[in-house]
Every structure is written in C-alpha cells, then in structure tokens.
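Onboarding guide, step 5: your first structure request.
Type a short instruction followed by the sequence, for example:

Predict the 3D structure of this protein.
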Amino acid sequence: MSPRRLLYVVGAVAVIAVVVVGLVQSGASTKAPKPDTFDLAAAQRQLAGAPAPLASLHRQANRLIPADVAKFSALTAGLEGHPVVINKWASWCAPCRGEFPVLQDVSLRYGKTVAFVGLDSNDNDADAGKFLRHFPVPYPSYVDRKARVAQKLEIGAYFPTTLFYDARGKMQYIHQGPYRTAAALAADIQRYALGQPK
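The system replies with structure tokens like these:
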C-alpha cells in the first residue's frame, strides 16, 4: 500500500472513531424511539391546584408558542416568585430524545412548586410538533427558530441546555448536555432552583 493511500485509510478510520465516540458519549441513537407512555391528561390532573402562574403553564401543556426575546422576557418576569427551569431542545437533537422522559418525570414531580418552560430552538414547527406528540410534557415550549432567545440567554450553541433560576429570578446554574436520570435533574433542582443543599 502506498504511503498516500495509507494516509487516507488512517484518516477515514480516525473520522469514524470520532463519530462513534461522540455518539457513545452523548448516549445518542439515530433510531426513532419507541412510542412514549406518558399520560399527559393524567399529569395535568395531578398538577391541578398549582399556583396561578404555574397553572397557566400547565394549561398550555405540550404547545409550541411563538416567542421573541421580549415575549420570553415577559414570560419569565411573570414567573418571579417561583423557581424556573428552562430546557432548550430541538427535534433533531438525539440527546434531547433521551432526556425528555427525564423531563416528563421530574416536571410532574415538581410542577406545583417549580415552573418548567421549554425553548425549542433552531427547529421547524412540523418536526417539533411531531417530537412533542411523541414526548408530551405538562408545560409549553416557546419557539425560538433563529435562536435569538437562546443567544440572549447566552446558551446558543449547545443542545440540550437547562437553566435554573431561583424564586427571585436570578439565574443560578446552566447545565449543558442531557440529564440521563431523574435523580440527577431533581438534585440540581433542589440545589439551584430551590436553594436546598444536597
């Protein structure tokens, strides 16, 4: 084998290795997930009686709501007095598919005390709607097609990303990458949103 051909082969192997390692580290799969079993109607019944600002989010469960920086800022301002968890996602993001069952579980567990908000960024309505039909959540997602809101929040590049705000509206923590377990997300909610030590 000529040195040039050997160099091409080594380069190709290196590229394949990088892709495989990236998929393994992200826990991602390019296959469509199995149908979800989350019962959105039952979740909404369980969340009944939440404070008015949180109940408003629950009434908009699983909806895609057009937003811009001003609208999103008004939304978060209206949630002051309650801890807030914002999750940036996209339908094309494989790690997001793995994370959504965790969000379903934890948003139901904490939904009467913590406001959960989705931020669907760099996506399209058809694919995002299909994603949410597959992975329904008891809170709305705000549409951020050109990532202007994400840029304002300084979380433009990485998917998924989760932000934690305390009840005073102060951002406490940014988690980049997916939560793989409900326990891990719950621990960060306790620590950063609710201000309780681990």
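Each response can be followed by summary notes, for example: The chain has a mean pLDDT of 86.
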